[in-house]
Design brief:
By secondary structure, the protein is mainly α. The protein folds into two domains: 87 residues, no CATH class; 179 residues, Orthogonal Bundle (MetI-like fold). The chain has eleven helices and two strands, in the order H-H-E-E-H-H-H-H-H-H-H-H-H. A two-stranded antiparallel ribbon has the order 1-2.
């Protein structure tokens, strides 16, 4: 346990140093800033970031006052999409493994069809679907766009989850099918254990650590698609904040990355620790 957290602390410190470097160096060599590195560090950790909220106003405003609401908005969408991705992929994979060969072929055809649809077209189709439902029923089921005080959650979360869930589903099925051919599964079947029990208790437990590693790369893919989702649904979110020229400053850019990196790195580290403890990985590392 101690070695795990020491390794993660070293990894965390290295990542922080890399973020500081990539937040300062490009602005010095290719930007218009004359900010010294010492001043940059003082503003980064002592004075705190500030931005020009309006190009016509010289007065600076605290970075936290501007970023907090978009950060929470996008954070909710990102976390909910991640949870929905895992739930859908797990449910689909369990159903696929337990289904007959004919059902498996039908599922594979549907996957190929859905994966061939571009993300923007998928978003547009979902928006048209709810517009059509509104015209038919007169009931506004969900907010199609974020406008004013109205915020859109359902459609952004669903559209961000579909493609990652399909990719994660394929990975999960590959691991589960590969695990089915191992000797302990044959032994469990010989003891009379049901397919569902073997799948839920033994197979999933043995592949969960490998699935977690792939979930991290899936999560990075979802972060990269968050900007597209914010633009498609007119969301004034966390990713679109960095496109504002007035916000693109060394200190602001560093804290923008910190807010994205620190919470989710901590979350995935704690989840990895819990999974290793549950599967016996920590005992094997001693």
């Amino acid at each position: 346990m101690k070695g795990f957290f020491i390794e993660k602390c070293i990894e965390f410190c290295i990542c922080i140093l890399v973020i500081i470097a990539i937040s300062y160096v490009p602005f010095v060599f290719w930007g218009n800033t004359s900010l010294s590195f010492t001043t940059f560090l003082q503003r980064l950790f002592i004075a705190g970031p500030a931005i020009h909220n309006n190009p016509m106003v010289i007065r600076q405003v605290p970075f936290w006052d501007v970023i907090w609401e978009p950060y929470m908005y996008s954070g909710i969408i990102l976390l909910a999409s991640t949870v929905l991705t895992v739930v859908m992929a797990t449910g689909f994979s369990f159903g696929y493994v337990l289904s007959s060969l004919k059902v498996k072929k039908a599922i594979e055809r549907c996957l190929v069809l859905i994966e061939s649809i571009p993300d923007l077209l998928l978003i547009f189709m979902l928006q048209l679907l709810f517009v059509w439902l509104y015209k038919q029923t007169g009931v506004n089921f969900v907010n199609i766009y974020a406008f004013g005080s109205k915020q859109a959650y359902f459609l952004p979360i669903v559209t961000m989850s579909l493609v990652p869930a399909l990719h994660f589903f394929r990975i999960m099925v590959l691991f589960l099918v590969e695990e089915q051919h191992k000797p302990y599964v044959e032994f469990a079947r010989a003891k009379g254990l049901s397919r569902k029990y073997i799948l839920f208790v033994h197979l999933f437990r043995n592949v969960i650590y490998h699935l977690f590693n792939h979930l991290q790369s899936t999560f990075l893919f979802m972060i990269s698609s968050l900007l597209l989702v914010e633009a498609a649904f007119n969301i004034n979110g966390y990713m679109s904040f960095i496109l504002k020229p007035l916000a693109l400053q060394p200190v602001t850019f560093a804290w923008w990355i910190f807010l994205l990196f620190i919470p989710f790195y901590t979350m995935f580290t704690l989840a990895q620790f819990q999974i290793k403890r549950m599967t016996g990985g920590l005992a094997n590392e001693k």
